[in-house]
Amino acid sequence: MSSSTAFTHGTAPGALPVLGHAPHLMRDPLSFFGSLSRHGDLVTIRLGPRRAHVPCHPELLRHMLVEYRTFDKGGPLYDRAREVFGESLGLCPHDQHRHQRRMLQPAFSAEKIAAYGVIMEAQITALTASWREGHVFEAFPTFFRLSANTAMRMIFGAGCTDEAAATVRQSIATLTRGLAVDLLLPKVVQRLPLPVIRRQAEARETFLTAMDRLVAEHRVRPHPASLLALLLDARGEDGRPLTDDQLREQAIAFLSAGTDTTAAALTWMFLLLAGNATAQRHLEEEVDEVLGGRPASFADLPRLPFTRRVVTEALRMRPPGWMFTRATTARTTVAGQVLEPGSLVLISPFTVQHRPDVHAEPDAFEPDRWLPERASALPRGSFAAFSNGGRKCIGDEFAMTEATLTLATVASRWRLTPEPGTDARPKPLATTLLPRRMRVRVTARHEGGEEPGTPVDARSESR
Hints:
Elements: E1 9-11, H1 22-27, H2 29-36, E2 42-47, E3 50-55, H3 58-66, E4 71-73, H4 76-85, H5 94-104, H6 110-129, E5 136-138, H7 139-156, H8 162-184, H9 187-190, H10 195-220, H11 227-232, H12 244-257, H13 260-274, H14 277-291, H15 305-317, E6 324-328, E7 332-334, E8 337-339, E9 344-347, H16 349-353, H17 372-375, H18 396-413, E10 414-418, E11 423-426, E12 435-437, E13 439-444
Helix pairs in contact: 4-8, 6-7, 6-18, 7-8, 7-13, 8-10, 10-12, 13-15, 13-18, 14-18, 15-18
């Protein structure tokens, strides 16, 4: 961290008795996080009785993400996630991370991403081929099914049935939504027999049972192109093959990380595009020139730079992983504040990605701010939608590929327009940033360009 920068510390105003700032986070998290940089580069807030420290300067944010031995994955959000999902790559403490990262990195090589691209193309094409002129659907549940089906087939291969994918998809949705309760609500509230708590327990049992069955089936009939096939040949730190529990935990990690976030990114993407006619036109011009009305393939990606910039800009404006935590493992000083071991750090990429002194006109949707010559001038740490440092999301390129292929394929034939009643406010008590409600209408971009398709059954739109 630069010694020439004098970082400031402040305390966020407006804390309520007992609850602290939790109501602000639940009611209007984007406004709350967007306001914090006005109070300092490191800002202290309260979540119930506990203090949390929020880095609001790009250099501080990057420092905390890069120095992951001192700022380790921890806090109530990760504690609860480990209880549900186990200590997989995305959740394990730093002393387990390096081995797991090396073990799993081959699954995300350029060659593997290209192979996964074939799975993505098939799922995206099947979805968009089912649309017709005037079809209306709920955006997030539809894109969630797309990303979950893709992730399931990447993990388990061609042997993953539609029935198994649906069971896992429905339970993982409930589990990931409920994790925010552990961070924002006091423990005394979490012990009450609330519907959300009961749904969590039921979903966890269903989810783990389904995953155990899939892992057991994979041991008997492995599919060579799957992530689990790679893990069956891997070795743990003790040199032994992975147990069923370890296989399940790693499968869960990629499923939980690659479903909600991608679906939320796509939902925000089409909402933001609908509000910017210039960006919409440039996107359509690019896909028309490259695709000519056909679905996008992995080989097309180098010729779709503006499409990728749209994805990046949507992630800047509405990062799906809008809030996560770290816990200090040693006494350290940040912005003049001494943080004792066990101090809670609350990280929100939104805070830095909306600083006007970092990103000019931060509330404007401007994909060309990610032109290479402009992006290279940004300070390090100014974009953290996939985190940074040694614990940067291992599936970042997988997610970017899936989102870019989906956006290009949709835009090549269709335009999605939000229906009246769309509520762009963030959904409360959700670990993934997503609109409360967004229904979209499908319009064919080219006369006669619509192909016959079967409308999606409205009952399959909900989870």
